[in-house]
Every structure is written in structure tokens, then in C-alpha cells.
Amino acid sequence: MSYTVPPTRTAAVVRQLRNEIVTGELPPGTLIKDAELAARLGVSITPVREAIAQLSVEGLIDIAPNRTRHVTKMTQKNALELIDVMSVLACAGFEWGVENLTDTHLDLMHQRQKEFVEGLRTGNVLGAAAAGADFSTIVILASGNRELQSMVDLVVARTNRILLMTPESDIWQVWIDGHQEILELLERGDRTGATTRYKQIYTEYRAKAESHLFDE
Question: Which of 85, 151, 156, 215 is the most exposed place for a label (fewest CB within 10 A)?
């Protein structure tokens, strides 16, 4: 799961700021000031600056040529491009890993699905997003390709913003239904069908993002 205690102050600041950005607590365009953040979080300037640099790599914070930092704005074009990238990476990992799944993997996937649904039911969107991401991670890691998972991790927070900006939207249902059907297919031994259904999730997700999430 994704709930381990960060090993360093920088990691703790990264997690805190990432959560605030993806939930909209720090809205797109918000000016990021080192000293104010350090004072609010009770840390020195150094871990704040290191965290900002990390979140810039993840695409959550924009650093302008004059060194001012703002929370990255999300446009429809950005969102659809991110979904396309995630689709390519995650679907490749799922296809590579699905044949290696064991009963233990399936048990973990069932557990993550329960946590995903429960998180949404109770309004814990961060916990739900983490559980939903872990559902896919279990399969991707079963491929044995950790480099691929590293690439997925770089964009997952940005794609989570698309979901978390509309926590009440039926866009979540795309993932709930998709995961459940994938589990049923895997229980029947239909790995090819499960892969096809996983790819379909991204097709449906993109369509909803395109039609519902942005005005432009």
C-alpha cells in the first residue's frame, strides 16, 4: 500500500504537498513560497526546496524562468495527453504482467478493490486513489519490469488530479466497474479478456474526461 511513513523530511513534504495539490487544497495557479511553506509545515527551507524540485519533475509545480513557482494548471489538453501516456504505460505493464499473476496477487487485488470502494464511500479520495493505483501496480510489478513502474509513478499523481478534482463524479465508476469485471475474468482464468477489459477502462476514462471535466 501507499501509506508508509516517509523516511525523510523531504519525502514527508513531497507527500504533503502532492496530497494538497491533487485534492485541490492548493488550487492550480497557486503561488508557492518557500518560507511560507516551511513555516506552515514546521520544517527548514531545504526540504521544501527539494520537495518543490521533485514535484516539478512530476509536473505538479511549474517553475518559471524568473524562478517563481506555481501549482501547474490543468487544461483539457493536458488531461487527455496524460491519460494517453498513462494508457500506453499501464496497459503495456498489465499485458506483460497478467500471465504471471498468482492466487496471492489476486487476493491482493481483491483487497485493494475493497479499499478503493470503501475509500470513495467514506470520502477518503486520497486513500481510494492509492488503493486504485495499487490494483494496477500489483499486475505491472508482476511483469518484473520495475523501470516501467517507475515511469508510471512519475505521471500517476498528475492523472489522479483529473479524478480528484471531481470526487463526486461518476468517472470513478469507470474504475470500480472495470476492476470488478477484471477480477471476475481473472478468476475464470481469462487473462486475455482481463487485459482487453483493462484497456477499455482507459478508453472510457478518456471519453468521460473529454466530455465532462473541462469547459474548454
Answer: 215
